[in-house]
Design goal:
Blueprint: H1 14-38, E1 45-49, H2 55-64, E2 69-74, H3 77-89, E3 95-99, E4 111-117, H4 126-135, E5 137-149, H5 161-177, H6 183-193, E6 200-204, E7 207-208, H7 215-232, H8 238-241, H9 243-257, E8 261-262, E9 265-272
Parallel strand pairs: 1-2, 1-4, 2-3, 4-5
Antiparallel strand pairs: 5-9, 6-9, 7-8
Amino acid sequence: MSERAPAYLMGHTGHERRRLALQASVLNPLTHGFLQRAGISAGMRVLDLGCGVGDVSLLVASLVGPHGSVTGLDIDPHSLEIAAARAREEGYDNLTFQQGDIAGHRPERLYDAVVGRHILIHAPDALDMIRHASLLALSGGILAFQEYDLSRFLPSYPELLLARRMQQLMTDLFTRATPHADIGLRLFWLLQEAGLSMPSARAECVIDGGPDSPLHEWFAETVRSLLPRLEALGLATAADLDIDTLAFRLQQEAAASRAGIVGPIVVGAFARKP
């Protein structure tokens, strides 16, 4: 792994891959709209950075169509195996996956677009990563990133005390363990600082709380993935959190108050290489 490769805070476990699937069920509608606004369209050649189990790669493949192509790049071989299997099951032959990081990626041809979802927050130097991404794009090519602002959460109404505590744990951890927990709100500046055109940006979040909502389990599995770091920093313990019942308790709390859990703020920003 290059020194520029992100240090992924969430780990590479089966639980984490389950969390990624839950996250995708919540965020994919936002990401799909973002990619369309960014200009990802039929026939394009696209690189998906930090593709994980392939959620964004599959969305991009559906947008570029059979005459386009998508390369998913990630450092975790197990996630890439899952991503490749999903692509085969869904019949995408325009989608390939490679193990590696951006600093070592050497494509045969430059890309029409480079995209990434929740990759910059883990990067030691987000600006350096964007500049590397720009080197892989054609002149006029699109750079499009979707990132959290995990330095804050909007409160639920009525207030949900358990959900609020989980939100605060995430905020405390990402503020202490990542270079910039508010990386989403920095995107507008970062893309310009990397020498790209004036960006277009939008902040969104999902609010949900029904009995079939995936947000409860998504929150619980996020806390599970973070638990080793939470314990190491003295922010929480497994016994204290009772992780195996957390999703149920979050759902029950929301149902009792008829309140929606507020997901993290998600910022999508895109610009073009001069």
